[in-house]
Write a structure and sequence with these properties.
single chain; mainly beta; elongated; 0% helix
C-alpha cells in the first residue's frame, strides 16, 4: 500500500497467581530469647497468568484523502499522522508447575517461653516446567476493514495483527514478613 506504519504504544495488564508447596529445614540455636535462623528448602508451585485485552496504537502517514474512520488524525512532533487503536484478545491463560528453591534468614525474639515476634526475609528461585514456546501468550485482533481516499481514488484497507507476550521460565521472588510466633 505504500503507507509506513509503526507501533506507537501497547498496553497489557495481567494477574499472576502462585500457589507454593515448599518444604525446608530451619537452622536455629537450641535456646535463648534472641534466635537468629536460616531456612533452606525445595518444593513445587503452580503459577497462573491471566491476561486482559491488549490495546495497540498504530501511527501511519496521512494519505491524500486524509484519515478515514476508524483512524483519527493526531499531531505527533508537529506532524499530522493517522492513529488507529486496536484491541487484541488473549487466546488463553498460561499455567505451569515449577520447581522452587527457597533460601531465607530471620530472627525471632521470644517475649515469654511461648510467645514471640519474628522478622524474616526469603528468596525463591522458580523454574517453570513448560517449554519456552508454551509460555508465550498469543494476542489476536479482529480484522478492521476501512477505505482511504488517494489521488487514484478510494482504496480498501484492512488491519489485523497478532502479538506475543513471553512469561519467563526462570523467576525470582523476594519476600519480607513480620509476625507473631507461638510455641507450645
Amino acid at each position: 500500500s505504500g503507507d509506513r506504519a509503526s507501533i506507537n504504544t501497547t498496553t497489557l495488564d495481567y494477574r499472576a497467581t502462585r500457589i507454593p508447596f515448599d518444604l525446608g529445614a530451619k537452622f536455629v540455636p537450641e535456646t535463648g530469647r534472641f534466635l537468629p535462623f536460616g531456612i533452606l528448602g525445595l518444593g513445587v508451585s503452580w503459577q497462573k497468568y491471566s491476561f486482559s485485552d491488549e490495546k495497540l496504537g498504530m501511527l501511519s502517514d496521512v494519505p491524500d484523502g486524509g484519515c478515514v474512520a476508524p483512524a483519527v488524525e493526531v499531531s505527533v512532533d508537529g506532524k499530522a499522522r493517522c492513529k488507529l487503536e486496536i484491541a487484541g484478545r488473549p487466546e488463553a491463560d498460561i499455567s505451569s508447575l515449577g520447581l522452587d528453591v527457597v533460601a531465607g534468614a530471620g530472627v525471632e525474639w521470644l517475649l515469654t517461653h511461648h510467645l514471640g515476634i519474628k522478622v524474616e526475609g526469603r528468596y525463591t528461585l522458580t523454574y517453570l516446567f513448560k517449554g519456552v514456546n508454551d509460555l508465550d501468550a498469543l494476542f489476536v485482533s479482529d480484522q478492521i476493514n476501512y477505505s482511504v481516499v488517494t489521488a487514484k481514488g478510494t482504496e480498501p484497507r484492512a488491519v489485523k495483527y497478532g502479538d506475543t507476550f513471553p512469561v519467563r521460565q526462570v523467576q525470582h521472588g523476594i519476600a519480607a514478613s513480620a509476625g507473631v510466633v507461638y510455641y507450645w
